[in-house]
Specification:
heterodimer; A: mainly beta; two-stranded antiparallel ribbon; elongated; B: alpha+beta; four-stranded antiparallel sheet
Amino acid sequence: AVRPLRRRQPKKSNELPQANRLPGIFDDVHGSHGRQVCRRHELYVSFQDLGWLDWVIAPQGYSAYYCEGECSFPLDSCMNATNHAILQSLVHLMMPDAVPKACCAPTKLSATSVLYYDSSNNVILRKHRNMVVKACGCH
Amino acid sequence: GGGPGLRPPPGCPQRRLGARERRDVQREILAVLGLPGRPRPRAPPAASRLPASAPLFMLDLYHAMAGDDDEDGAPAERRLGRADLVMSFVNMVERDRALGHQEPHWKEFRFDLTQIPAGEAVTAAEFRIYKVPSIHLLNRTLHVSMFQVVQEQSNRESDLFFLDLQTLRAGDEGWLVLDVTAASDCWLLKRHKDLGLRLYVETEDGHSVDPGLAGLLGQRAPRSQQPFVVTFFRASPSPIRTPR
């Protein structure tokens, strides 16, 4: 299915094509438009900035992270792509206006614990699941 | 304070939030945390700002749990079981049997449980009391038993429900932990009532001992050694969040 996209120029000589000049599927894999591949980025949530340190004992904030970047074909193994994302990326190559690229999203989340006072001055420790991005991938 | 995420990592973009923006963000995060509003704890009086036993215990637990958040099945995770909410309750009222040398001696503790959130399942509950070595009962073995006060009676002894028994030496020092999980069903059914716990101490030959003489510290102990109850819950996921 991908074959029709290849428009091979007749070789003028015996020179081999440059990998980074190949048209089509390799065009925007590693940020040819200045965008990076899907990966995890820093995002810090500060309880201090929210003015909550009178009731939040610990932590003062935490790194939640977020996922951003391109999910372009071919999806490397490091992108944790689902089978569906690989197929969607392929279809996107042929119908870029109809089908978008796969989304860069969290693939693994972890919990964070918050220690705080309630209004009766009891100390409460609560574990909140799925608050921190551990890994990103193409979905 | 302390623990992970103390400061934003270097290079992380920062921006001051506007007042309205801040309120919106606060409301959203409180909803994620399952809180109906921002708690407003009372500022403690200056004299009682020394570290208290329950917060110190909870901070230790936080550090154990925070290191564990990344991985499933780590040691602290196993220790906490399936709990994801831990509450500590400070001892509100303490009563001693004030009948001189008349036996049996006991000490009663009351805790305000009205803050227990609805829809939570108790997985475990512990009563923690600090014991110093007893100078009156050297080398004796002591049995410490804990009962729940089910019903107080005006004309006779209160109705009690047995919760736990621990055996220790009179010279022992440290936190004594009594399992009061069995009382939890009753708290959830009658959450408007205070939890009354009654503690008895006996020697091996069955003689009642004043808990104070056995070295068990009560409300008049230093703040870091006062008794408290800690309860482990399995929380229902964000019950307060509304679908949008």
